[in-house]
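Handout, section 4.2: multi-component inputs.
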Amino acid sequence: MNTRRRLPIGQLLGRTLRSFREDLYRRAQEAGYRDLREAHLQVFGAIDWTGTRLTELAARANMTPPSMAELVDELQQAGYLERRPDPSDGRAKLIRPTRKGRRVLAQALRAVEEIERGYAEAVGPERFDALAATLQDLLDARPRGFKAERRRSTGSDDLQA
Amino acid sequence: MNTRRRLPIGQLLGRTLRSFREDLYRRAQEAGYRDLREAHLQVFGAIDWTGTRLTELAARANMTPPSMAELVDELQQAGYLERRPDPSDGRAKLIRPTRKGRRVLAQALRAVEEIERGYAEAVGPERFDALAATLQDLLDARPRGFKAERRRSTGSDDLQA
DNA sequence: CTATCTGCTTAGGTACCCTAACGATTAGGG
DNA sequence: CCCTAATCGTTAGGGTACCTAAGCAGATAG
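Output:
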């Protein structure tokens, strides 16, 4: 059908991901959250409404605890998050969204939905669902294919629900 | 079919892309190219066998000319590339792979094919082809959906053919 | 109660990419 | 032709988003 050759998989993934992140970030900016950087959105993508430990946040966002801690520090200082002792473990702290943070969280989740809906409209819902399902299966199959294991875990991802 | 909830699109794209890049980079390392960094692979993904201008390289790899120039500088010093005046334009220089660079180029193209074949085996060739086609269509549809246009162009991608 | 493990933090990088500004060449119009 | 404007490449100077290494404080297990 397509006489035009398609880009290699790396380009396709990279450009789509960048487009997604820019879109999401742009919405945050337009919503008035000018003090948020792109990396901060990952925190909102990983956190629970009731609070989440730093280690857990880092794992969900695929990054190291110190890296996540820096993002949390900034969001705390900007009034989006608060740290409070975890009652079930004296070492741990629960990182919870403040009222301001919950507003961002709600808007971010809605924004992701909107973007995904836009994709579904662009190529058709079935094809978009198939895209997501195939990517998920690729990731699930990956450990067997070849493991990198060069680092504990490397990578940065985006807003999850 | 899948009772497990799928990850949001950003995570799916991000993790898959990272996995792809790590895989490609690991192969380069194992092939003995220890002086190559991950970013260098983009150059080989953008260059033509007969030589390509810096501006063109930068555009194909979705980056600014100074950024690409730095990568080219390093690859030139490592003996993978050479710069020679472009006969058709006194300002421009053609960046060409040396014999050593052509070996890397060939291996890199083969590696990408292998990786893509691995994906096709993991989820089935039809689903993999559909994945690529859908991503391509999403990118083609994007300019209308919403343009970012915040920068000239931002982003980093991977090996193309 | 000591040994180890886990959660978090501090300190100090590293990889990768950007903008701004400039000299050199080419292209286009009067 | 000449003069302006655009283009190719480069230099200089960031800046973001991550990382590793090391350590303390609280928890867990023999």
